[in-house]
Amino acid sequence: MASLLRAATWGMFPWRGYCSRGTQGELGEGFVEALKAVVGSPHVSTAAAVREQHGHDESMHRCQPPDAVVWPQNVEQVSRLAALCYGQGVPIIPFGSGTGLEGGVCAVQGGVCVNLTHMDRILELNPEDFSVVVEPGVTRKALNTHLRDSGLWFPVDPGADASLCGMVATGASGTNAVRYGTMRDNVLNLEVVLPGGRLLHTAGPGRHFRKSAAGYNLTGLFVGSEGTLGLITAATLRLHPAPEATVAATCAFPSVQAAVDSTVHILQAAVPVARIEFLDDVMMDACNRHSKLNCCVAPTLFLEFHGSEQALAEQVQRTEEIIRHNGGSHFSWAKEAEERSRLWAARHNAWYAALALRPGCKGYSTDVCVPISRLPEILVQTKEDLQASGLTGTIVGHVGDGNFHCILVVDPEDHEELLRVKAFAEQLVRRALALHGTCTGEHGIGLGKRLLLQEEVGTVGIETMRQLKATLDPRGLMNPGKVL
Predict the structure, then answer these.
(1) Each residue of 419-433: pLDDT tens digit?
(2) 257: Cβ–Cβ under 8 A, 6 or more apart, which residues?
(3) What's the CA gap between 156 and 476, in Å, rounded?
(4) How far, in Å, CA of 44 to CA of 40, rounded?
(5) Helix 2-10 crosses helix 450-472 at what angle (to 10 degrees)?
(6) What is the pLDDT of residue 16?
(7) CA distances from 408 to 250, 293, 377, 379, 472 (A)
(8) Which of 142, 386, 478, 483 counts the highest number of beta carbons within 10 A?
(9) Would you call 299 helix, strand, or coil by DSSP?
(10) Distances in Å between the alpha carbon of 46 and those of 50, 65, 110, 463?
């Protein structure tokens, strides 16, 4: 049965009807006209530059661009597009802001890229229920700007101003996850257009309860599905009270071990830290240069605390005691909003700071996540591996939940260097798996980690995922080639 499922789901499907038979992946004129009939001529493009722009994300993965890009204006158009494409055997690739890091938007079999950014309305705000309903084009910054006077905010912050439904699709998290959780913890309901055009509300139409024991968790199924099961056209998200007071800090350490030990001890002491980020010495030096900081070039923690003034004083005092016990120094506290924003802007621009270490080269980022108790071990080993590899790279991470990233800056024309990058990344992931961790904490699987996913979840896990995929997408046309 497993082999039949694989054959049914993962084969290359012959395109029929509107699709040109001359070159696989080339759409016929009649099909393009049918797309225009759904969304209007101004919202369809087959221009090479537009297609190329939509054929890649921030990763190094490259393949052919989609054959057409469409911009639907509402869920009804998305449903009609899905039915049209699916009926004619044309692959469908959802597109948000293009900030992914694992090739999730690459059109490996051509097809139609559905750019959802024109659907950018905040549909419903329920302040008393701490929930909001957004369309896929709404970004996290736009939502928090809208919420500014409500006393609420949406804390999941991956750094980039990503689209919220794109964050749902990739299971994103970020710097605040240690306190507020990831997207998996903050999605209450989803509106999804299934491959054939049917509309699904994963928790029922209009529902935004905080918990339920009713049936299978369909919402959870689509969080992190990376566009392979359907197109997310609305998300009901959990909101949080905006903190009364906030204070941020940086502190330097004599070693990677000391910095990570402090992280573990702070969490074990039940200090409700809102953010705790690790930057190694190379990353800190790059951030100093790129963002004009003046921090000590050493393994460093960036921290932030939320709460009342009294609670913050207690949190800060306890954290300072732990950090000093582990040899931390060069404390710098940021209490004013402008000062904190400058600090976290530097952290969020770490990717660009790393790229500046080798102008003209490309960045490759990989992430893993391990149980907190194994974090010191893997970070120390990874730093040693990075130094031994001869690669230009940095380590930065959301260490409060065991997740960290390696950003490697590489010459894409240097084949030998690319092989070293591949070997380093695979060694890192396998080390994380050996420590009962995961091959990705937040980037997702995309194109780059499909084989590693099999090592992580095993044969039965992969076959179960294939069966789910085959049930929802029997023709294998939803973002083909990703995850599995």
Answers:
(1) 999 999 999 999 999
(2) 376, 380
(3) 31
(4) 7
(5) 90
(6) 29
(7) 24, 22, 21, 15, 37
(8) 478
(9) coil
(10) 7, 10, 12, 37
